[in-house]
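FYI - complex with flavin-adenine dinucleotide, inputs then prediction.
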Amino acid sequence: MLAFAEPVPITGDIVRHAGIIGWAARNSAKPGRSGPEAWVIQATPDWSTTHLEDSIDSVAERLHAALADQADRPLPTPIYRTAHRWRYARATATDRGALWNAGMRLGAAGDWLLAPRIESAWLSGRLLADQMLAG
Ligand SMILES: Cc1cc2nc3c(=O)[nH]c(=O)nc-3n(C[C@H](O)[C@H](O)[C@H](O)COP(=O)(O)OP(=O)(O)OC[C@H]3O[C@@H](n4cnc5c(N)ncnc54)[C@H](O)[C@@H]3O)c2cc1C
């Protein structure tokens, strides 16, 4: 995560699939947010796996540089910079949607059955409910 005292010269509020960046967002642009210009940058799963044991400073430096590559002009100096290793944050998705055993009346739902997003958790719950209501 990087925070700046002034806006970062990047067109748009989201960066996807750009070098080692899997996804990055201008967090301060989300509705209802106040505070300084702030970016959350997630590395790609491949890069994260390769650099799992790297230091916080090294990871922050690399992702900072990757974000700078997306800017129209040099980035301002950050007022805050850190990195966090969320080792188990991103579920490897399947396309199964939901699991339901009608005989046992036992089901499971979650993002891991579709895609690693909150929307998928919700959709998976809906799919499970549909299957339960159908018997
Ligand atoms: C740091 C971070 C940032 C994220 N940002 C975003 C974002 O900006 N947008 C987005 O769409 N998604 C985001 N996600 C992903 C999103 O949080 C998940 O996709 C979503 O929470 C998955 O919901 P879920 O109900 O499948 O699982 P979870 O939210 O993980 O819920 C599972 C629940 O089961 C409980 N549990 C586990 N084991 C047991 C047990 N044995 N007994 C009882 N309870 C148990 C857990 O405590 C937990 O409450 C983010 C995830 C992380 C980690």
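The two ends are 46 Å apart (CA to CA). The chain is about 25% helix and 20% strand.
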